[in-house]
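Page 47, continued from p. 46.
Same chain as before, 326 aa.
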Amino acid sequence: MFKLEPVSDRNQWEKFLLGSDQANFLQSWQWGKMHQDLGQTVWRYGIYDQNRLSGILQLIKVAAKRATYFECPGGPVIDWSGPVHPWLFSQLKSLARENQASFIRIRPNILPQNLGLRKAPMHLHAETTWILPLQPSEEELLKDMRKTTRYLVKKAKKLGVEVSQSTDPKDIDQLYKLQQETVDRKHFVPFSREYFLAELNSFLPDNIRLFKAAYQGRLLAMAMIIFYGAEAIYHYSGSSNEHREIPASYLLQWEVIKAAKKLGLERYNFWGYTADPRHRFFGPSLFKAGFGGREVRYLPAQDLVVSQAYWPNWLVETLRRKLRRL
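Result:
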C-alpha cells in the first residue's frame, strides 16, 4: 500500500536521493532551498511502501500570468518499471486541484519511455546533455579532445591565462556582468543576479564553486560549477566582450575537468547540448563536444494535464519555443 507524505528530514532525503541511479542536483534539498529563498513554494514528498521510503519528488509551484502549475525537474525519483506511477499521477492531480494548478510538468532523469503523459511544449532544464567520463588519465582526456580544442587549451596556458576558484558571494556581481556581455552577443533571456546568488548560497559550502579565467589581470570568463553526487555540472557561465582572441574559456573548462577528476567524480556534465545546427545554442554545443564525451538524452518534459486552463499555456509556450528557436 503506497502513501504520499511530506519529508522534513534533510538527511533522509539526501541519503535516498544520492543512493539512487537517478540522483541529480535538481531534486536535491539545496535546489529546493534556492527556490524557497527566491520566494517560491516548494513541497518535498516521499512515497512510502509499507512505511519504507521508496521514492521522492520535489515540487516547485510556478505562478505565471498564463497559468499556475507545478514543476518537478529531475524527478520524480521512483522505480519507473513498477506499478507506482499511475497511483502517483492520481495523487499529484489531487494535490494540483487543491492548489489551483492546471498541470504538473515532470522531467525525470530516465531514458525516453512512454509514461502515458503529454509531451510538454517547452523543455524543463537540460533534456539533452553532453557527458564526459572522468576515469581516463589527464593525458588520455587531452588526447581525446578535438584537435582544435586541445590546441586552444594549450594556447591559453602559454599566453598566461590564469584560472582560479572562488566561493565568495561577492563574485556573483562579476558573473552577472559577464552574463550580460554574453547576452549582448548571443541574445538570450538572462538570469537575474538574485537567482545566481540564491543558487550559490544554497549549495555552499561544499557543492558549488565559481571558476574564473583572467588574462593580464582582466577577468575574461567565469563559470558556476555544481558538484553533486557522482558528477560536476557546468551550470551557468559568462564571458567578456574584451580579448575575444584569447581562448580563456577553453582553459577554464580544462581546469574544471581536472578539479572534478581530483575529487574522484565519475563524470563532467556539460549540461545543455544540441546537435541541431538550426538551434541557437548549436555554437556552445560544438564548444562542449570539443572536450570529448558523448550525448545523453533524457526523457523530455512531460505534462500531467489537470484542467482546461492548461491549453492557453500550451499555446503560448508552443509559440515561444518557435520564436526562440528552442
